Amino acid sequence: MNKINLSSLMYTGIGSIVGSGWLMSSYLIASISGPSAILSWIIGSIIILVIALNFIEVCGFLPAKNGGFGHYVDYTHNSALSFIVEWVFLLSWIGLIPAEATATVQYLSSMLPSVNTLVMAANGRDMTFVGSAITSLVCLAFFFINYASMTLLMKCIKYLTLLKILVPIIVAVILLVVAHNFSNLGITTHSFMPYGSHGMLQSITTGGVVFAFIGFQTPVTFAGSALNPKRNIPLAILLSVIFCTIIYSVLQLAYIVAVPHDLVAEHGWQSIVYTAPFIDLSHAYKLDFLKSIIMVVAFIAPFSAGLIFYASAVKITSGFTEYLPKIVAYKKKDNPLGSLLFVLFGALAFIWLLPGWQEIVSVICVSLIILFAVMCLVNGALTRHAKYGKSAHGIHLRGSKYFSALGYVLASLMYFWSSWPLTGKGLIVLVISTPVYFIFHSRKVGFKEAFCDFFLASWLFFHMLLITVVSYLGTFGGIGYLSSATSQLLVVIISLFFYFIGLKNSKLSSKLTEHISAQNQK
Which of 106, 353, 393, 502 places its Cα 20 to 30 Å from the Cα of 299? Predict the structure, then answer.
């Protein structure tokens, strides 16, 4: 079997982060927060880095395995929490495939007005029957490339990623050279942050920062196929986040100074409308060659990201087959054909049930934030039980017990910043996992044991329920009964309370004890 090296792992991480997001995120974030969008990227990336540190330490200590993150949770908690995390992660990752496929088709159709009317509905958001059919064919292309071989997949990812990394950099540099509207950055606090700290924080989740970085943990899903995973997986995550933060921050700066100042002065950032921001700006500055390049990459960026998400979803499914029908585990010449088809049918279901990609993406972001919180808790539990200091193996960072708690609180705040009613939708996704858990897991261990495990994991549901209630009562999309400061302080207190409940419910499992002993004997 072909092993994946560090550079290829970095390509999967960067390729997942630099997807369709860069084409619209600078515009969307600026419309919510104004010039302080630059701070949104910096603050958002710092939060992601804190969370990534927890992923790095967990993945650097526990055994590598293809798939999602459920098996990590099983070392410190129980099968119920492990199942819920894995199931939510699997559904979220499958949902990202049609989101990128839809973006691919939309960008292509926007270049041909006659085709666009056939593909897009009158509201400009949903897809027609023809559009859904074409999007399904794109998902089919993902299937065939993944089915061909890992080598072909990694080559496609490598060259497509290289191209789509270069283009945002070129776009940012050229716009910074030709555009000189630095007055757009604002001199006073009001002009730099016209919609207050509320707008800046809200844009981290609803504007696209979280969505842009949502693929930072992609290298972990290839852990079982990686060379020296304990070293290369953490490095790939860390380097991917840092590199992409620089790209997105510079791109955001370029967008802000490129928007005509009279347009900002007359209408304000919230009223500026661009259907294809960087293409529109290239046209405004008569940069036809740049416009052509962006059009090409507008297809490549989401296509390559979708390709990576498909491969990751297959890896996650392969590691989750014990809870799925036996046919999903079917392999043809060591090729996980059953998992490939399962992911394909799941992606097609998203396309035909939810033709608009915006709804899919928003719910996916909130769902994955729950995963971020749980993984920070897992790291805190490992710090409590694993006694890293007695093991020479793995990656051990100073202050683990502090940045695991900090990561958990920050993830909870991001969930809150998503705003009502999106927080409610995230809770619904979590609740839906309950019957799925009992249907599949009770067959394996019996209903009584499954119920006991679920009861011990129920604190997570209460945590998200309370944040959702605070969200409804607060100013982030809610009724405004609680002030912004009060509601965020409540979220911090609630999060710390449930973090310590989660720690108390963690355990020194036999699997973890055996792993520590094996590590210390090396």
Answer: 353
Cα–Cα distance for residue pair 45/264, rounded to 1 Å:
27
Separation between Cα atoms, residue 55 and residue 36, nearest integer Å: 29
The model's confidence at residue 396, banded by pLDDT at 50, 70 and 90, is low
Report yes or no: 28 and 208 within 8 Å, Cβ to Cβ: yes
Q: Please check the confidence at residue 410 and state whether its pLDDT lies above 80.
A: yes
Q: What is the pLDDT of residues 2-32, one digit of tens each?
A: 677 788 788 778 877 876 677 778 888 888 8
State residue 455 phi and psi, 5-degree precision: -60, -40
Its CATH class, for the domain covering 6-507, is mainly alpha
Report yes or no: 218 and 8 within 8 Å, Cβ to Cβ.
Answer: no
3-state secondary structure of 486: helix
List the one residue out of 223, 273, 221, 241 whose CA is nearest residue 52. 241
Cβ neighbours of residue 16 closer than 8 Å, sequence gap 6 or more? 214, 215, 216, 218, 305, 308, 309, 312
The answer to whether the CB of 477 falls within 8 A of the CB of 347 is no
Question: Burial of 122 by CB count in 10 Å (0-12 exposed, 13-18 middle, 19+ buried)?
Answer: exposed
C-alpha distance from residue 232 to each of 3, 46, 237, 322, 514 (Å): 12, 21, 9, 28, 24
**Dist CA 93 CA 377 (whole Å):** 21
Query: Rounded to two decimals, what is the model's pTM?
Result: 0.79
Cα dist. 27→238, 247, 418, 419 in Å? 26, 15, 18, 20
Instruction: Give the pLDDT band (50/70/90) at residue 390.
Output: very low
Return d(Cα 15, Cα 244) in angstroms, integer. 10
Which long-range CB contacts under 8 A does 424-429 form with residues at least 24 apart? Answer: 424/468, 424/471, 424/472, 425/362, 425/363, 425/366, 426/363, 426/366, 426/367, 426/369, 426/370, 426/464, 426/468, 427/461, 427/464, 427/465, 427/468, 429/88, 429/91, 429/363, 429/366, 429/367
Instruction: Quickly list H helices, 319-336.
Output: none
**Separation of alpha carbons 469 and 427, rounded Å:** 11
C-alpha span between 393 and 28 (Å, rounded): 44
> For the chain, which residues make up each domain, given as ranges?
6-507
**HSE value, Cβ hemisphere, 13 Å, CA-based, for 229:** 19
